[in-house]
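Please go through the sequence and fold tokens given here and tell me how the chain folds. Record follows.
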Amino acid sequence: MNDQLSEPTVVCPFCESADTEQESAFGSEISKTQYYCHGCNTVFERIKYDGSSPDTGR
């Protein structure tokens, strides 16, 4: 499997646990993803970013 295509480890910003899972592909904005932390039972959002510059069509 290509490491670039695998999802990076998402760490909870509240308790720093890596025991997280994606809750929803979209959060409060289309550019965010919701995750659930099993460590502190909190839902948090993370900005979607794959490391490359987005295609702006220009």
In short: The mean pLDDT is 84. The longest strand covers residues 32-37. The two ends are 33 Å apart (CA to CA).
